[in-house]
Amino acid sequence: MAGGTPTDRTVRIGLIQVREQGSVKANLSHTIDKIRQAAAVGAQIICTQELFTSPYFCRTQDPELFDLAESVPGPTTDVLAAVAGELGVVIIGSLFERRASGVYHNTAAVIDADGSYLGKYRKMHIPQDPGFEEKYYFTPGDLGYQVWDTHFGKISVLICWDQWYPEAARLAALAGAEILFYPTAIGWLSEEKAQLGAAQHTAWETVQRGHAVANGCYVATVNRTGTEDGTEFWGQSFVSDFYGQVLERAPVDAEALILADCDLKALEDMRRNWPFFRDRRIDSFDGLTRRMIDET
Length: 296
Fold this sequence. Notes:
Blueprint: E1 10-17, H1 24-40, E2 45-47, H2 75-87, E3 90-100, E4 103-111, E5 117-122, H3 134-137, E6 148-150, E7 153-157, H4 166-174, E8 179-183, E9 187-189, H5 193-215, E10 218-222, E11 225-228, E12 231-234, E13 238-240, E14 246-249, E15 256-263, H6 264-273
Parallel strand pairs: 1-2, 2-3, 7-8, 8-10
Antiparallel strand pairs: 1-15, 3-4, 4-5, 6-7, 9-12, 10-13, 11-12, 13-14
Helix pairs in contact: 1-2, 4-5
């Protein structure tokens, strides 16, 4: 896949938007069933929602919830690898990683279509808001923004809060990513939805569609659905093409399998005609490494 002249090639991606099923075992089984359904209708790269084996447990600070974490690679990636190899599909699985006692990460594992474990991404940007107590659970990632040359195309994985940072998408694209995947768990708090719900969702989708345009990439975002402990996850998983056009979008309040065909030759043509990477004034970007530009 690397190097040479691109030929006509299209990859079908699948996003698994589901409700929490009540246990780790049930969540894993339910998601694998959906992966099989996606593969049966031609999906080649399939992505789960964020922390798919459990409820979104970051609503409160509870030390017992660290027991949900596991090694990556580990038992769940072993199961996903067997399924990926059997079906001939790439699987992205979002997991709670136990790195060491007291060090945990929000991590996505990438399994290639032959069942081989390609590597993992650790969520870099960790939020801390009412109902999203993630800094209590997750150590910020330290693996950088990675790209994997899978059997079906070059992909990168970023996770939820990473969605708001154009620098993350840019670095992934500069490393060669053609499709950016964002496993996600985002929703409305009941006390905010009436006043801010529409605006919050609009901002979330718009910024990601902007990443697709600015980087000449497909963007695939998969969210939870259903209500968990007062948070109404707003679903609406979607795929955007490199013009920011939404190719497919899931409903708010129902499970869904989102399928979209990504034309990687058309993506190459777009990058040739709109050469954003070529025209970047990298000599003028030193300020990006500063927290704020407030001193002379």
